[in-house]
Amino acid sequence: MTQMTQEEIVSNTKTVLQGLEALRVEHLTLISNLNEGSKKDPDKSDIVMKNIENIELGLGEAQVIVVLASHLQNIEAEKQKLRTQVRRLCQENAWLRDELANTQQKLQASEQTVAQLEEEKKHLEFMASVKKYDDNQENEEQLEKTRSDPVVELFPEDESEERHNMSPTPPNQFANHANAGYEIPARLRTLHNLVIQYASQGRYEVAVPLCKQALEDLEKTSGHDHPDVATMLNILALVYRDQNKYKEAANLLNDALAIREKTLGENHPAVAATLNNLAVLYGKRGKYKDAEPLCKRALEIRENVLGKNHPDVAKQLNNLALLCQNQTKYEEVEMYYQRALEIYEMKLGPDDPNVAKTKNNLASCYLKQGKYKEAEVLYKQVLTRAHEREFGTINGENKPIWQVAEEREENKLKNRENTPYGEYGGWHKAAKVDSPTVTTTLKNLGALYRRQGKYEAADTLEDCALRSKKEALDLVKQSKVAKILGVPDENRRQRMKDNDNYDDEIKRIHK
């Protein structure tokens, strides 16, 4: 038998209902006739009554089916109506989600723009109030600090455990040190960038709550033991470290280290990055013995994963050397710096800034041990290479600044009125090759000359270092102001060249 549809069932039920109603009328007429006759037949009456009862039962069931069918139709109509409403609500919900996402993006962009404008405003206010003697006063104070502690370390504070004066960490160092070996996922990128931006500006009251909110959301969605949680823990630890909250930072880094070891494995580059950050933190607290094994383990991981001659291995060697230097383990310091120097020269070439930085730090190690000859050789190598890159091959007329300084020292008794700074001042142009490194080398070699009693040579190098720093600051200020005011790069470069009198200075040097 074929299955009947709901409509067919209802139609047939109504037909049966009409038939049963007619049959019931006939039976009522029949029972009435039997009761009125002269001869009553009880048996027939009973049979007819039973039939009437059955007919009424059938009528009741048929009516129930009809009513039920009508009710089902009403329910179906209501169901269709609700489905239509649900579809409309889903569409409205999707539209509202899109609007919310767009609004959030606009809000984040606005916050970044506001932060940038605030920094530009501060810079413009500074430029409006700064005076020439401010630079001179700052340079004199810096010179006094250098003379009191002549050895200047080169590597950034995130890598140098000797430097305790905290300042906001630049954004690129936040990202590199917190997340080395682990890419920031898309869902965290915007928030991650905001945290880094605020922290680099020193706005910790904004950066810390953002980071904590990110951690809370991550732990709810992904659980505590997730690499993304470790990433944000590293970021928050760096923020705390910049605030000198070393204990809180250490707790976060230890937690991040445990998560990364559990989820990524004990020999993952991200584990090495966390170990390095923890070692730097201990170094800042003066816990060099606790920091050294962490740094050595980070070195071992990077050697195994990246190879023994990778630049990141050299970077870790530099950090380890600084830790050992604070413990006066000078033999190990020399070994680590020499190996780092070999890696940089082999992989990055002799002109890479890291080569000069490592030579400078190795020379500073020699200087602290009283090995003046070895230190002097390295300092002169750095300055000579910077001179060659800027001015060409060295000859009798094209001399590096250290040679000029030594000649001034030799001639100080013959000519008490030595040539003023302006006559050789153009050499500060060479500092543009790698300004921080060259300037630091000038200061350190000047300190070495001063220890040897060569005060005229020391003054020459220190004066040149001050001029290089001042010129670098002026160029940065001019560049920032021109950028804010929308001055084209070509015009800006021409104006800087005119102001610096570049060609005239070069001619003076070669005379």
From TrEMBL:
Q: One MF term from GO for this chain?
A: kinesin binding
Residues in coiled coil: 65-127
**Keywords tagged on the record:** Coiled coil, Cytoplasm, Cytoskeleton, Microtubule, Motor protein, Repeat, TPR repeat
InterPro entries per UniProt: Kinesin_light, Kinesin_light_repeat, TPR-like_helical_dom_sf, TPR_rpt
Instruction: Specify the superkingdom.
Output: Eukaryota
The UniProt entry lists the main location of this chain as: cytoplasm
Relate the assembly described in the record.
Oligomeric complex composed of two heavy chains and two light chains.
User: Could you tell me what this protein is called?
Assistant: Kinesin light chain
Q: What is the lineage of its organism?
A: Eukaryota, Metazoa, Ecdysozoa, Arthropoda, Hexapoda
UniProt KW Ubl conjugation keyword: no
Q: Which organism is it from?
A: Psorophora albipes
Keyword RNA-binding carried by entry: no
